[in-house]
Design a protein that fits this description.
Layout (H helix, E strand, L loop, with lengths): L3 E5 L4 H12 L4 E5 L3 H10 L8 E4 L4 E3 L3 H8 L9 E7 L3 H12 L4 E4 L26 H15 L2 E3 L4 E7 L2 E6 L4 E9 L3 E3 L5 H4 L6 E3 L13 E5 L3 H10 L5 E5 L11 H8 L4 E4 L13 H4 L4 H13 L3 E5 L2 E3 L28
Helix pairs in contact: 4-5, 7-8
């Protein structure tokens, strides 16, 4: 598929989200800052005002203003509506577990429907390099691996629905009823809950205010080139943190892993520890936690007057930082209890759920 053009301000956090989604969908794109000559020409050709950013222009000329995830998925051409009423197996979550289950179930002739809230691939899809997957001795890009697995499930006959949220699960006799956010429902003989993890938030107000403007949860693969010659701090000591560090070390001048404990061995694979130890521009700081952050304001912004100028200075202060903090610590999603057939409850946001992904 031919790519798209994204026009937005450099500091627009929505543009960061869109770049991440397009990277995970493996959609070729080009980013043009709205302040650049190319960005202004594209906006003028599309008849869009600068106040309507971000803007996506598809290869065929279709213009999307601040598109939602379903809008983007629809433009890419993937299915976002479920047109199957009954199936043998419904799978909630299209990460590695859900995709693998879909491959095996569909290959055995089971009518399989795979529901994904956002983009397939899960945590593995954000990994720049997976080294311990069988058959790839030199590693493989996580997004590419998940793209192949998704394609394999589809070729086997699985019906994959993106940007579709399951909100409740009920038992009707021997069947399970999965209710979707758009009001439709899916009847299945069995339901597999594979909702994976969500990123643990650090709870530091100063960091939360900079999300998408120097602070990222996840590997931030789509932003790696923007970190050229920067000092990058990565919070977390799991395999995802290590993979992000090794990838970003190719672009950043220095990468620092911040670890609360005294050792990496309890949470990180040994092959990754060896790789980190042999990479000269990666350092590890043990017994360290993030409690605050400081935004450095350029000198010329301190005396600037006028609201427009102040806004530009705020953007420069955020984008001109010397350190970028990336939170990659994760925990298992806690919304899976909502899918148990003994009660009808919302999948998302349940505070009482405590179970791991399971089969109902």
């Amino acid at each position: 598929m031919r790519g798209v053009r994204l026009i937005a301000a450099d500091s627009d956090s929505r543009a960061v989200q869109l770049r991440d989604v397009m990277t995970r969908f493996r959609l070729p794109y080009r980013f043009d800052p709205s302040e650049s000559d190319a960005g202004r020409r594209l906006l003028a050709a599309a008849g869009v005002e600068a106040a309507d950013l971000p803007v996506l222009v598809r290869y065929d000329g279709q213009v999307m203003i601040d598109p939602s995830l379903p809008d983007l998925a629809r433009a890419i051409g993937v299915s976002i509506e479920n047109d199957i009423e009954t199936c043998d197996l419904a799978i909630v979550g299209a990460g590695p577990a859900g995709l693998t289950a879909a491959v095996y179930a569909a290959s055995e002739g089971l009518e399989t429907v795979l529901l994904e809230l956002a983009v397939s691939g899960g945590q593995a899809g954000t990994s720049p390099l997976i080294r311990n997957y069988p058959g790839f001795p030199h590693g493989i890009d996580g997004g590419a691996l998940m793209e192949r697995t998704c394609g394999q499930a589809w070729l086997m006959g699985a019906h994959i629905v993106f940007t579709q949220q399951a909100v409740a699960l009920e038992r009707h006799g021997d069947d399970r009823i999965v209710r979707l956010l758009d009001g439709t429902e899916l009847r299945a003989r069995a339901v597999l809950i594979a909702t994976g993890i969500r990123w643990r938030r650090l709870g530091v107000p100063q960091l939360e205010a900079l999300l998408g403007a120097g602070v990222f949860y996840g590997a931030a693969v789509s932003e790696s080139r923007a970190m050229q010659d920067q000092n990058v701090f990565i919070v977390g000591t799991g395999n995802s943190a290590a993979q992000a560090a090794l990838h970003l070390a190719k672009h950043a001048s220095a990468v620092t892993l911040l670890a609360r404990g005294d050792s990496l061995t309890n949470s990180m694979s040994s092959y990754l520890i060896r790789a980190i130890e042999s990479t000269p521009n990666i350092a590890v700081r043990h017994r360290t936690e993030v409690v605050s952050t400081v935004v450095i304001i350029p000198d010329e912004c301190r005396s600037t007057r006028g609201s427009g100028s102040r806004a530009r200075c705020r953007r420069r202060a955020r984008m001109g930082r010397q350190a970028i903090v990336i939170g990659v610590a994760a925990r298992r999603r806690r919304d899976t209890d909502a899918c148990r057939p003994t009660r009808q409850r919302a999948l998302a946001g349940s505070e009482q759920a405590r179970t791991a992904p399971s089969v109902a």
